[in-house]
Design a protein that fits this description.
Oligomer: homodimer
Order of helices and strands of chain A: HEEEHEEEEHH
Strand content of chain A: 25-35%
Strand order of the largest sheet of chain A: 2-3-4-5-6
Helix content of chain A: 10-25%
CATH class of chain A: Alpha Beta
Largest sheet of chain A: 5 strands, antiparallel
Structural class of chain A: alpha+beta
Largest interface: A-B, 60 and 60 residues
CATH superfamily of chain A: Cytochrome P460
Number of strands of chain A: 7
CATH architecture of chain A: 3-Layer(bba) Sandwich
Chain lengths: 191, 191
């Protein structure tokens, strides 16, 4: 009888584990990972993240427009996106990635317009007070001379943080350029 | 004894179900759904799909460039994307969505460039021989006069299919405009 009770309990526990594992694998929060030098590791699956917004030739610089405009796509890590959809907040560990593309035109059948071609750079914005006291930090992976780098140290000039902190529509995130992310905000928090 | 054996078997079955459910919920293939009139239902989660490519002002029309260029983003349903990554093939049930955005510029701190703003239209390409003998069919959800429609009948002019069939780099899909999807193809199948 004791054996039967123990086995019945095991069935129950196994079933509970089954249910919780089946429901939760996609929602356990993803967080940034660093190497032994505290460099941010580019997440392997970043190209599967959720689209926040798209731009062409966007530049914050004074003076002339960029000589070589680029397509930019900003993606957000899915579990941080889900948290944002539910709360309107970017939780600790939120990661956004910016993919910088060269511009092409003319492939058949296009007769007008431009499309994003080869990837020229990858940058990230990460909210992690355990790594940077200010919270948000900015990383460039793909720019020369480190094209294709798998790790990056944070930008230390302060210029990224200062501009984001001053101008971002919400918590250092340039929502004003991210129409899809803005549309996904909970209604009471939308702007 | 028979009870113990039965319970032990139940533990084993529950554990197997637990394992398979925990590993597979994200990979059970998503397929298109239709209403009673066989209209395609716009999937609720399409804005969480995986980015294939981005363009601005892309047009296949002869003559002058579009008077109001739009940003286009093409996304692919994640389980069809995974199948493509593994095989280089678009399986039956593959769904792509095209989001059409108006263009804005000038929000602080941008000094140059343009970004995707309000969504003006949503279109889909679906490979489903059970619905359309040719396989691929094309649907417009958001264009006037049906902006924001939740269902759509396939385009029946034949012009979408003919152009895709003639010009697509692979299986009716305009890979030539989708740099990220092209980069995700298995190496032996990349082009």
């Amino acid at each position: 009888m004791r054996t039967i009770t123990a086995l019945a309990a095991l069935v129950l526990v196994t079933a509970i584990v089954a249910t919780s594992r089946a429901q939760s694998p996609a929602s356990s929060p993803a967080t940034p990972r660093y190497d032994k030098d505290r460099a941010l590791i580019l997440p392997a699956d970043y190209r599967r993240w959720i689209l926040a917004g798209t731009s062409l030739g966007l530049s914050y610089a004074e003076g002339a427009a960029p000589e070589h405009p680029m397509f930019h796509e900003t993606l957000i890590e899915p579990t941080a996106y889900q948290h944002f959809v539910e709360t309107g907040e970017f939780r600790e560990g939120t990661m956004l990635v910016l993919i910088v593309h060269g511009v092409e035109e003319g492939s058949v059948p296009s007769r007008h317009g431009q499309y994003a071609a080869a990837v020229h750079g990858v940058e990230m914005a990460v909210k992690d007070r355990a790594r940077i006291p200010a919270g948000w930090a900015y990383y460039a992976f793909g720019d020369a001379p480190r094209a294709g780098a798998a790790t990056a140290q944070p930008n230390t000039s302060g210029s990224c943080y200062a501009c984001h902190s001053k101008n971002a529509a919400r918590d250092n995130v340039f929502m004003q350029f991210y129409s899809l992310l803005s549309a996904a905000a909970p209604p009471a928090r939308a702007r």
